[in-house]
Specification:
This protein is of the alpha+beta class and about 270 residues long. It folds into two domains: about 10-80, Multidrug-efflux Transporter Regulator, Chain: A, Domain 2, CATH 1.10.1660; about 110-270, Alpha-Beta Barrel (Multidrug-efflux Transporter 1 Regulator Bmrr, Chain A), CATH 3.20.80. The chain is about 40% helix and about 25% strand. The protein has eight helices and twelve strands. It has helices spanning about 10-15, 20-30, 50-65, 70-75, 80-120, 150-160, 180, 225-240, and strands spanning about 10, 40, 45-50, 125-130, 135-140, 170-175, 190-195, 205-210, 210-220, 240-245, 245-250, 265-270. Strands 4, 5, 6, 7, 8, 9, 10, 11 and 12 form a nine-stranded antiparallel sheet that branches. Strands 1-3-2 form a three-stranded antiparallel sheet. The longest helix has about 40 residues, at about 80-120.
């Protein structure tokens, strides 16, 4: 399709051609981003087809979250080099956004799994499950006598270095060495943790290994956990399972409860199968 050089479109026609609202074109005119080719005595705005490429460039850059100021600067000095640099910069930002969205998707999948477990679970049941990938945990050491409040503050600050924007972007909980379980020390935790999306090659992270895990649940406040650990040790002996490494605890229903009496802690402990 071709248009004569003097072909004019009304603002409505030009907006429909590019599938945008007339108010968008009016705003672009007001801020000097895209002026109409002509304004008649009656105040009506008219555009030429040759302006389509400029408008499509603006729309593309806006979709890439380029600011109005940046677009104005680019239009004043349009060149292949300036567009390339702008697209490279926004490409990096887009990669960052995609990475964050993948983290959110993973978090959503885990939350969905937790909600499915909540609807179908038998809290008295213990099962052996296979974890098919490693998990990467930011930790704060509790062995130095730090208060829980201070540990949470440090953990949150540390996790921000891994592009976690909010607490709900990650799973978090506590770590209890299995050797302490076998000694009957059910409250001698070694660390608080917050999971960050992996894989990550960075020193200082605690790696929760993949493999077979004994999974159990405890309902109610943390005061009930020692009793549940006694049940776990008894079950492991009966099944010939050897616990190893650490017990990983995390709450799985904070978003849907009102009191600690309804709180559910998921416990996962690596096991050596008979």
């Amino acid at each position: 399709m071709s248009f004569a050089a003097e072909t004019f479109f009304t603002i409505g026609q030009f907006a429909d051609l590019h599938e945008i609202n007339k108010k968008t074109l009016m705003w672009y005119d007001e801020i000097g981003l895209l002026k109409p080719a002509a304004v008649r005595e009656n105040g009506y705005r008219y555009y030429t087809y040759q302006q389509s490429s400029t408008l499509e460039t603006i729309l593309m850059l806006r979709e890439l979250q380029v600011s109005i100021r940046e677009i104005q600067e680019f239009l004043k000095n349009r060149s292949a080099a300036s567009l390339e640099m702008l697209l490279i910069e926004k490409g990096r930002e887009l990669d960052h956004t995609i990475t964050h969205l993948k983290k959110i998707k993973k978090m959503m999948s885990e939350r969905q799994r937790d909600m499915s477990i909540l609807r179908e679970m038998d809290l008295s049941q213990m099962t052996v499950v296979d974890k098919v990938e490693r998990h990467y945990l930011v930790t704060v050491d509790l062995s130095c006598g730090i208060t829980l409040e201070k540990a949470i503050e440090r953990l949150t600050a540390e996790a921000k270095g891994y592009q976690l924007r909010r607490l709900h972007d990650a799973s978090y909980g506590s770590i209890l060495p299995v050797e302490q379980l076998y000694q009957g020390n059910f409250s001698r935790y070694s660390a608080l943790y917050m999971e960050v999306p992996g894989p990550i090659r960075k020193k200082g992270l605690h790696i929760q290994p993949k493999g077979s895990y004994l999974r159990a649940f405890c309902k109610g406040s943390w005061e009930h956990l020692p009793e549940r650990y006694l049940d776990i040790l008894s079950y492991a002996r009966e099944q010939g399972l050897r616990l190893s490494g650490f017990a990983y605890e995390k709450g799985i229903n904070e978003m849907v409860i009102d009191t600690l009496d309804e709180y559910i802690t998921e416990i996962e402990i690596p096991v050596q199968l008979p």
